[in-house]
UniProtKB/TrEMBL annotation:
<keyword id="KW-0067">ATP-binding</keyword>
<keyword id="KW-0547">Nucleotide-binding</keyword>
<dbReference type="InterPro" id="IPR027417">
    <property type="entry name" value="P-loop_NTPase"/>
</dbReference>
<dbReference type="InterPro" id="IPR003593">
    <property type="entry name" value="AAA+_ATPase"/>
</dbReference>
<feature type="domain" description="ABC transporter">
    <location>
        <begin position="4"/>
        <end position="255"/>
    </location>
</feature>
<dbReference type="InterPro" id="IPR010230">
    <property type="entry name" value="FeS-cluster_ATPase_SufC"/>
</dbReference>
<protein>
    <submittedName>
        <fullName>Fe-S cluster assembly ATP-binding protein</fullName>
    </submittedName>
</protein>
<dbReference type="InterPro" id="IPR003439">
    <property type="entry name" value="ABC_transporter-like_ATP-bd"/>
</dbReference>
<dbReference type="GO" id="GO:0005524">
    <property type="term" value="F:ATP binding"/>
</dbReference>
<comment type="similarity">
    <text>Belongs to the ABC transporter superfamily. Ycf16 family.</text>
</comment>
<dbReference type="Pfam" id="PF00005">
    <property type="entry name" value="ABC_tran"/>
</dbReference>
<dbReference type="GO" id="GO:0016887">
    <property type="term" value="F:ATP hydrolysis activity"/>
</dbReference>
Length: 259
């Protein structure tokens, strides 16, 4: 049983758009509370610019985001004190952790290196090769994809498949998926969602699914839905809340000045 606990998290970003140091500092997260346990799927839904990606980046340890107060713990361990690598070894999977191109590193090498780093030992070659092949097959990925350099010239859909391939193989305790649905056509969305569902079935992973649209929730069923507006959770419920957002949009949650 694993618990990711976020308490009263405040985060600023330095947009760097003023002449003086500190001019561009804006508070984006304004007191986020959220608890994700093993086996649970939480959807975070909110309008563009509400701070959803900032939440994901902050948990990932992106240097651009400064935590000014609050806590993030994984089974009581202080995540904010960990390096990015330590977060991965602790069992956090953050899809945006490897967003950049890695010249000269193939998908195949990258996956094996990541698996070795996280498990503390190299995977058994024979089962590993088979696991990779099976997962790629199920995600309808051409085997040649494994020999391409990470993220180099990947299409939007290939990036998403590569993320889910990592999630399936690295078997994290908690996976944070930011806008996994963006830029996918219906077929790709179904294939990627099935990958997430397989990962959920095969393990006890807790999932934090960040999305603007309700469409992905037809394929990946959330246990809890959190409405995220203006840097914090403003309403929580079960799957019925996603249906309500689909019908009514976010207007009801926006302050009049912003609606
Ligand atoms: P969402 O993912 O919900 O669309 P974001 O977290 O991407 O929202 O952005 C929330 C707010 O923070 C926006 O106003 C955005 O412009 C600002 N922001 C986020 N990241 C940065 C950054 N690196 N530099 C400057 N502003 C940022
Ligand atoms: Mg947002
Ligand atoms: Mg975003």
């Amino acid at each position: 049983m694993t618990t990711l606990e976020i308490r009263d998290l405040h985060v600023t970003v330095d947009a760097g758009d003023g002449p003086e140091a500190g001019d561009g500092v804006k508070e984006i997260l304004r007191g986020v509370d959220l608890t994700v346990r093993s086996g649970e799927t939480h959807a975070i839904m909110g309008p563009n610019g509400s701070g959803k990606s900032t939440l994901a980046y902050s948990i990932a340890g992106h240097p651009k985001y400064t935590v000014t107060s609050g806590t993030v713990t994984l089974d009581g361990e202080d995540v904010l004190a960990m390096s990015v690598d330590e977060r991965a070894r602790a069992g956090l999977f953050l899809a945006m952790q490897y967003p950049v191109e890695v010249p000269g590193v193939t998908v195949s090498n990258f996956l094996r290196t990541a698996k070795t780093a996280i498990d503390g030992e190299a995977p058994k070659l024979r089962t590993w090769v088979k696991d990779v092949r099976t997962a790629m097959d199920e995600l309808r990925m051409d085997p040649a994809f494994a020999e391409r350099n990470v993220n180099e010239g990947f299409s939007g859909g290939e990036k998403k498949r590569h993320e889910i391939l990592q999630m399936e193989l690295l078997k994290p305790k908690v996976a944070i998926l930011d806008e996994t649905d963006s830029g996918l056509d219906v077929d790709a969305l179904r294939i990627v969602s099935e990958g997430v569902n397989r990962a959920k079935e095969g393990t006890d992973v807790g999932v934090l699914l960040i999305t603007h649209y309700t469409r992905i929730l037809r394929y990946i069923k959330p246990d809890f839905v959190h409405v995220f507006v203006d840097g914090k959770v403003v309403e929580e419920g079960g799957p019925e809340l996603a249906q309500r957002l689909e019908d009514e949009g976010y207007d009801r949650f926006l302050t009049p000045a912003k609606a």
